[in-house]
Amino acid sequence: MVFFIGGTMCEQNHVTAMYADFFDYIECSTSPYHTVEESYRRLEDQGFTPLSMDEEWNLTEGDYVIDVYGTTLVAFHIGKDPRGTLRIASAHTDFPGFRVKPNPMITEKGYGKLNVESYGGLIQYTWFDRPLSLAGVVVTKGEGLDVETHYVDIAKPVATIPSLAIHMNRTVNEKAVFNKQKEMLPLILMRGVGTEYEDDATLLQALLAEEIGCEPKDILSYELTVYNTDSVETVGFDAEFISAPRLDNLTSCYACLQGILSAKNQQATGIRMAFLFDHEEVGSRTKQGGASLLLPNVVRRVYRALGLSEEVCDADIAKGFMISSDVAHGYHPNYGEKNDITNYPTLNGGVVLKIASSQSYAGDAVAQAIVTDLCETHGIKHQIYVNRSDIPGGSTVGSISSAQLVMRTMDVGLPLLAMHSARELMGTYDQIELNRILTVFLGEV
Fold it and tell me: Are 65 and 51 in contact (CB under 8 A)?
């Protein structure tokens, strides 16, 4: 059996091998912490040298990776001629969903529920009746004023948000509006069945203590994401689609990793960088978000550590280029009127160049031309997205980042349906094209 990609045949085992790794990346990336942990592990395994933000850097030609507060990752390659060219790719590690509040346990008539808050612009009704789990970090006492951070992924369904039967909500199919504080609390246990815990108020601490092997009293805090445990699945008569949680924006994170690995393997000249930011879904204005000074600070530190002047750094920034990668709205066959009348990217149509005169997406005519030429030169399928004029659409971190660094930038991504749902849908072959453009952009000599 063969698949057809862009008019050429590709053996199924080649495609399957590529997606096995991509699917594994999605399954491992159950919270921003775990996305960075998995990305960091992959880069370190490939020879990237770990750096820390709180240490002085002495840099030479080579490859480096930085974990920034656990949920943002920076990786960069320094070539033989550091001033050859400065290229940067970025994506984001967070996704819409729920976060567990402090003091979260609620018990009612034997039912145990978690008090949670929504994170980002999730589609609420898609989270009902899903198998859910918890992932993130737990912080415990250390020696003196130090604390210890433990990564936690329950890795099995331990929660669900049961919907109300239609017999008790006859208008649910007419108006699906839900109270986040009352109607969207995950159910996690039933008293009188299974393990009995001493105190409802500290029940979650007891569960987390079992996971990390400590006493409940030693837990000082946690940051836990409620995530959908559904597996990645191919969909369609010929597996034309991929249905999975967290495609926004793990598709771009994965492609950025392929790009920075290509820079290493191809021994690219200049400086090539990848930034995986946290908190894009809530505005990016945090210490590790795209609206922070992290991007310009890291770029300037790299130049200083190479013995290059601030003037040289500013000059290279001015002639450099950045690609901000985030998903785009694909044409929805059931809601065709929601798209622009002449610019409507389709699934399996390739990389999307995202354009907005409002600059909610980063780019200008020159940036668009550069990326278009890059695609055409290397045979990368590409298409254009523009918001319908009476629908504002979303935004990305691209414009924010380029304002901080003052570098020409273009927003791209792959087209998606059901964006911000608990499960999203992409075209099977679009990831190949997104990988290719970032591999060529960061890895081309």
Answer: yes
